[in-house]
Specification:
Blueprint lengths: L3 H11 L2 H15 L4 E2 L19 E5 L24 H13 L12 H6 L1 E5 L4 E2 L11 H15 L4 E5 L1 H6 L9 E5 L16 H11 L16
Parallel strand pairs: 2-3, 2-5, 5-6
Antiparallel strand pairs: 1-4
C-alpha cells in the first residue's frame, strides 16, 4: 500500500500529460511480448514502506535490474532466492569495513532498510528484460525529479546518498543547509575502486542522523528474508 503523502504526489502527477504518455507506453509494452521489470504491482514499491516525512536516507539508483525476477521496486535490492548482483556485493564489502560487525547475508533483499526509513529510489522505475536503460527518457526522470523535490521541500532533514554521475545530477538542487548530501562513485565493478570503497557513507549517514536526534539505521540485514 502506497503511503498517503506519496499517494498525493502520484495522484497529482497522473494528471500530467508526460505521466499519461509514460504509463501508456509501459502498458503497451507489457501487453506485447516484451517482458518489463519489475512486475506492475512492484513498480511503486519504494513508496510502500516510508512516507515523505519519515524518510531518513535516500539511496538513489539508476534503473531496475533487467534480469528475470530480480527487480522488485527497491533500488539495488533483489527478490529473495536471486543471486546477489555485483553492485550490491560491493555495497556489502563497503558495509563490512564501515559498519562494525556487519556480516553480508546470502540474499540481496533490502526490505529491512526500507522499513526503517531508507528510500531505495531508482530514477527510472521500469526496464525491458535484458535491455538496461531501455525506459530512460520515457518520462520516469520527470516523475522522480518531483519525488526528490518533494523530499527537499517537505522532509525536515534527511541524508541523500548519490552514487555515480547520474545520481549527482539529480542532487544539484538539494538544500544542503537542511539535508546532508553524500556523493561518490557508483558501487558497480566498473567504478567501485575509484573511491566507492572507503567512502564510509553508511556510517556518515548514521552519524548525521544521531546528531539530529533521529534513530539510526540498523544496516545489518537478517540472515533470512521473512515472508
Amino acid at each position: 500500500m502506497i503511503k498517503p503523502q506519496w499517494q498525493q504526489l502520484i495522484n497529482r502527477e497522473t494528471k500530467q500529460s508526460y505521466f499519461k504518455n509514460l504509463i501508456t507506453e509501459v502498458e503497451k509494452q507489457r501487453a506485447s511480448e516484451i517482458s518489463i521489470y519489475p512486475a506492475e504491482k512492484d513498480v511503486f514499491n519504494a513508496f510502500n514502506h516510508v512516507d515523505i516525512a519519515d524518510v531518513k536516507i535516500v539511496i538513489l539508483g539508476q534503473d531496475p535490474y533487467h534480469g528475470k525476477d530480480q527487480a522488485h521496486g527497491l533500488a539495488f535490492s533483489v527478490q529473495d532466492g536471486i543471486k546477489v548482483p555485483p553492485s550490491l556485493v560491493n555495497m556489502y564489502k563497503e558495509l563490512s569495513t564501515d559498519i562494525k560487525g556487519f556480516k553480508a547475508p546470502k540474499h540481496g533483499c533490502l526490505t529491512h532498510w526500507a522499513e526503517q526509513g531508507v528510500l531505495l529510489l531508482n530514477t527510472v522505475l521500469t526496464v525491458q528484460q535484458g535491455n538496461a536503460h531501455s525506459h530512460a527518457k520515457l518520462g520516469w526522470e520527470m516523475f522522480t525529479e518531483q519525488v526528490i523535490n518533494e523530499l527537499n521541500e517537505y522532509n525536515n532533514g534527511c541524508v541523500f546518498i548519490l552514487w555515480g554521475a547520474h545520481a549527482h545530477k539529480k542532487g544539484k538542487n538539494i538544500n544542503q543547509e537542511k539535508h546532508l548530501v553524500l556523493a561518490g562513485p557508483h558501487p558497480s565493478p566498473l567504478s567501485a575502486y575509484r573511491g566507492f570503497y572507503g567512502c564510509q557513507h553508511f556510517s556518515q549517514a548514521n552519524t548525521w542522523l544521531a546528531k539530529h536526534e533521529i534513530n539510526q539505521i540498523d544496516w545489518q540485514l537478517p540472515a533470512e528474508v521473512s515472508v
